[in-house]
Amino acid sequence: MKILIVDDEAINRTLLANMLYNAGYEQCVEAMDGVEAVKKFKNEKPDLVLLDVVMPGLSGFDVAPIIRKLAKGSYLPILFITALEDKESLVRCLEVGGNDFVIKPFDRHILIAKIRAHLKIRALSERIEQQNKALRLFNQRVAREHAIVEHIFSHAIVNRPEVVAHFDCFLKPAETFNGDLFLCESSPRGGIYFVVGDFTGHGLASAIGALPVTRAFQELSQQGVSISEIITELNRVLIKFLPSDMFMAAVVGEINAGGSRVNLWQGGMPAVIVSAKTDSGLRSIPSRHMALGILDEHELNTDCDTIQLGFNEQLVICSDGLIESTNQKGEMLLEEGLVDIVKKQIRTHGKIESNALFLSAKKHCAASSFHDDVTLVVFTSQPIKISMSQTPDIGLPSVHEIALDVEHLKQPDILQRVLQLAGQCEGIQAVRSIIYTVLSELFNNALEHGVLKLDSKIKVDSSGFHQYYESREASLKALSYGQINIRIESLPLKAKVLITVEDSGEGFEWSKASTLGRHHSIHDENFGRGLPLLHALCERVWFENGGSKVVCLLDTKT
Amino acid sequence: MEITSSYQNQGKVLVVDVGPKFDFSKVEEFRSVYSELGADVSHITVDLSRTEYMDSSALGMLLNMQKTLAKRELTYSIENARPQVAKILKISRFDKKFEIK
Known about the structure:
The complex is a heterodimer of chains A (558) and B (101).
Chain A: E1 2-6, H1 10-22, E2 27-31, H2 34-44, E3 48-52, H3 60-70, E4 78-82, H4 87-95, E5 100-103, H5 108-156, H6 161-164, E6 167-172, E7 180-186, E8 192-199, H7 204-207, H8 210-223, H9 227-241, E9 248-255, E10 261-267, E11 272-274, E12 283-285, E13 305-308, E14 314-318, H10 320-323, H11 334-349, H12 354-364, E15 374-380, E16 398-405, H13 406-409, H14 414-423, H15 432-451, H16 462-478, E17 483-491, E18 496-503, H17 510-519, H18 530-537, E19 540-544, E20 549-555
Parallel strand pairs in A: 1-2, 1-3, 3-4, 4-5
Antiparallel strand pairs in A: 6-15, 7-8, 8-9, 9-10, 10-13, 11-12, 11-14, 14-15, 16-17, 17-18, 18-20, 19-20
Helix pairs in contact in A: 2-3, 8-9, 11-12, 14-15, 15-18
Chain B: E1 4-8, E2 13-17, E3 21-22, H1 27-35, E4 43-47, E5 53-54, H2 56-68, E6 75-79, H3 83-91, E7 99-100
Parallel strand pairs in B: 2-4, 3-5, 4-6, 6-7
Antiparallel strand pairs in B: 1-2
Helix pairs in contact in B: 1-2
């Protein structure tokens, strides 16, 4: 510990320095007047200053404020040592920035005790200063990390504006990150899928679950799967990604293209309200299931409610942050309270508006603010207007040519790989499954009849059916020569797909087969179903090269 | 195994969930589902909710199941088909042999 002794009398300085030395303070710096005191203070950075009051030039009263100003950071004790005894002078010692005083002649023990006490305070203050610094750094790091995560979230969890425009939503996170989630995405059938979810807790920890959920939801929406599949998949994702004490209450729904029917799965959310012109017509759909991310797949119930919406009728979905808001008496708003607010709004305004609904709910909890995230989503029955194509408006035309020889044909997953390639063409979303069926049909025909020369007629009875597939396997294994060429041309601008499959076989009498096929009774035979199916699915089907090459033209508009 | 099956309603109903792709590659798997059918079963439900596409060999497999089990008095239904798959069932007039839900 370094102590600065300021006194104009050399004898006093030596006396003090000796005393301090004996008390264990070996590092003392001396100054003989105010100017030198300031200079030494700057250079030596002492931990404590002993200051005489009466000095020529700058007095102790002048020096104290200067030093006080120079001392940055931790607590710096300035102790006056003075012969002045009057009350006023002593008060002034403290007023100009001193921390304590000792009156001459002073007692050695008292002075040392005071120095010890003040240095102890300085040590504490230094520790606080260090901790503050560490805390500042930590805060900066957290802020930066939050900024990064926020950036990721804002890019990963985005609803397309033309889809979200069909909803009136109000989202208010309790913190930067939202444990509530609202997702919507168009369905391939022209309707909309949506999820209103509420994760356990709020803040970053609960928001993190939103990422895998969003991803899964967007993929499933594009595939146009049923609500029950979305539920199953989201549940699977949540069980896989989240710790077991975290889960997501959710309302998951699909709105039809007309905007008049909603298939709704409701698990662990406050009752969904369906508005009506009269109070008695108001419906509410209470939670029917446990939240997602709790039950194993075989325990999960994916039953949905189907809700018919009349013209201009509204669907109101909210998270529990809203209905669990409490007033001064500690009473929660609850579902009943919300229903009352909804009824009141319909009576006065004829319709529900999310912002107004939130403000009414807020009035309920006048004193306190919302402790949890609040999400309010209102859908007003209306036809859905979203352009069907999710790819850029002008889809890229493409041609895939696949030449398969014997080695390829023997691969068990060969058809899957061909289909996967075909599925990547732009402009085919609406008929992807149909294209898969057509390709699968053409491929199997080319393989079974063209290359392997199997006769479908064996399939005439049940044992023959399996005999047929067994001989297919055996012939394929023994196959030494064979080729199938597949060409898939997608023309998004014309909304057409042209599929050509040619095999190395001898062809067949297609004119006979196709006329036969078209009028064939297909519901009772184990064979001969493929060709009529092709004719029904495609705009045109024709054969070339004596039947060894078949061309299908498909319309990609539904 | 992509095809899964379960008994419901005290073993009276067999529900077969076909999985994402219902085509030639499923011949053996599909047959094995009904090859050892419980004695109490009176109805078989084929659930196509996860099925992305089916082809004519799948249609054949469905009919073949009925033929194989013809001696037992069973009813059949095909459920939850997506629009494009349902179209194929409709084109093939499968409603004559199966109850389509």
